[in-house]
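Re-run with default settings, no changes from the original entry. Doing this only to confirm the output is reproducible before filing.
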Amino acid sequence: MADPLTVFVPLQHAHRFLPYVGVVEQAGGQVDFVDIQDTKKRRAALARATAGAVGLDPFGADDFAIAPHLRAIITCTTGVDPIDLEAATEHGVMVGNTPDLCIEEVADHTLMFLLSCYRRLPRTVYQARSQAPTRDGAIDVSDHWPRLRSQVAGLLGFGNIARAVATRCQAFGLRVIAHDPYVNPSLAEKLNVELVDFDDVLAAADYLCVHLPLNPETRHCLNAEAFARMKPTAFVINTARGPIIDEPALVAALKAGQIAGAGLDVTEIEPIAQDNPLLQIPDALLTPHSAGYSQEASRWGPESALRCAAAVIQGGRPRSVQNPAVLERLKA
């Protein structure tokens, strides 16, 4: 008979999760580290597990179909985009995440990009690849380059990270607007942030900061049409998920001068390829999906995921269920 108290963890994440297995053991369960790249071992683990604690690992309908005891999969990240939420819901599997992970880190990284774009650091870094940077190489007197104070930071999304970005931007004197049709307007009002339509945030932003989850609604929502609505002096900053931006459209907009520059921690394909055209654009600054890292965040993600898994094996649920429709299904 399958053990209903097993929590599986992908073997490649073992070094991060191992310090916290006691959380599950104290709840009466056991943690199995499984090579999920091995089909046979993956199927065996899913067949016996009550919960999974994972990273950015893909799980789809075929996985849930062979997991009769599985009640939840919890990621040690904020994103759950590699998991088929619809299939999980159909099979009664809750999908949880770590909603309070790396809020400060990603907000700081976003502000770093914003200040870098403001001070034209991307072109200085680009110049320094081949020669000592020069003042003339950094400063083009024909550029639109006003002081930062009173410029507009436009936020796409107004979740935890975006709200942390808003307070940082306001400290630098920026006016902050946001687009998020799902947020309570009173929350934005409390933070002195104006909620606007999607087209309005595109048209008004001097710095457009992306803080959206990746889903069918948001994939490629920043496309050629969107860039055409932006100011030619505006910068795009993405510390969320790469496929939110149509990358060829972004490259075209940057090359044509349709927008002024970009700060990107994420790309459509990761790791970024050496021949990616973004690397040849002087006013684009890229980092390797490192915005969320700190020692504290690296520890908390696995601990939180296993704490949620421990709650699940005791009959509870993850603290943040990303497919809430499953809860009604489980009641039935």
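The chain has a mean pLDDT of 96. Residues 6-101+295-331 form a domain with the Rossmann fold fold (CATH 3.40.50.720).
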